[in-house]
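Escalated from tier 1: zinc ion holo job.
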Amino acid sequence: MRVTYPRCREPLVITDETRSRAERYDRYRYPLQEEVVSCELATHTPETACAAYLLHEEDPHVQVWARWNPTGGPVHVEETTACPNEHDDAPCLLFHTHPGPCTWAITSPFDPPL
Ligand SMILES: [Zn+2]
Ligand SMILES: [Zn+2]
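Tier 2 regenerated the structure:
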């Protein structure tokens, strides 16, 4: 039986500061289109920071993620490699050393009902 975990989905409004820090990593200078992103981790405890994908770099294995604590504090913009795990040829879409399960075990709001 396939066990899935609901996605956290905590929203993060992209401020001008977060936007300029993310775009500084991007060698192609793609603008960050999103105004609001949401946590892509499975639901987690408050001790774990939320995480949302922002941009990728020229090297597709290098990604830029926002990490933040939903109870407040600064938003961290981090450069990281992708999670190396695969499942049935589907790569995990989260970052390396992410907490919790990989993306194939997380229910997305866009997934059809099981
Ligand atoms: Zn979260
Ligand atoms: Zn993973």
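The pocket of zinc ion (ligand 1) is lined by residues 8, 10, 39, 41, 44, 50 (CB under 6 Å).
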